Amino acid sequence: MTSAPLAARLSIPSGPLFFPVTAYGPDGSVDLDVYREHVRRGVEAGAAAVFACCGTGEFHALTPEEFEACVRVAVEAAAGRVPVVAGAGYGTALAVRYARLAEGAGADGLLAMPPYLVVAGQEGLLRHYREVAAATSLDVIVYQRDNAVFTPETVVELARSEGIIGFKDGVGDLDLMQRIVSAVRSEVPGDFLYFNGLPTAELTGLAYRGIGITLYSSAVFCFAPEVALAFHAALNAEDDDVVNRLLDGFYRPFVDLRAQGRGYAVSLVKAGVRLRGLDVGEVRPPLHEPAEDHVKQLAQLIERGYALLEEGV
After folding, report:
1. Would you say which domain of life the source belongs to (predicted)?
2. pTM of this structure
């Protein structure tokens, strides 16, 4: 167990970042026992951190009470072995409320997701994230996606803000990200963390590594941790032959399958966890379950991923 600051614990990519799904029972309520087991397995498999109740964890579908309970269980399951980062989102007042609930539940940091519904200007976005960061003692990672897309100048101001330690990109505009990285490096002394937060981030791992971004979220780690770990090790060792074999044989086909349905970035991952023997339940609406044929294709892909490992990739 360590009490080192969050940035220091995340700065060395010792493994993929684990975004657990949230488990529901047959009646649709949160199943904390199954969730605890899911988090425990991920930590013991080699996750570098647990990002609880974020996008893959259906933050949007959880009540504040369920959110707090899940974060607390994730902290208990991690037992200090890796940091636990919790999601926070919606409008500023609710984001602050979730941030404080996460702090009370023992989280080490926050992933601040986009504000709800509105498309705000840069000045309003900056104020929003600064207010969230000021609300607790937790370090904050700002998540760029959907209606929260930043100019390099705004990210410089975020990096200057107390409590904001990093920036996660879920947009995939590499030109923008290169300009952001360059601007912050030029204007703000010290280390600022960057994360590839695209769905199935492994697919763009080589491109992001090219601009110096090696931290990434891995949804695949939820259901095929050995495959995710093998890819992570190869990417960081610059063993691009192994990286490309896993991309061609597993990750690209998985992304093609994920593109077959809206919300599959969550529901297909949850189906994968069930296929591997842990009944985490279905997704909550407005998400929907994958088609039966797509689940069968996922099962075949998982088998293919593990076959690649046996072939010695």
Report:
1. Bacteria
2. 0.96
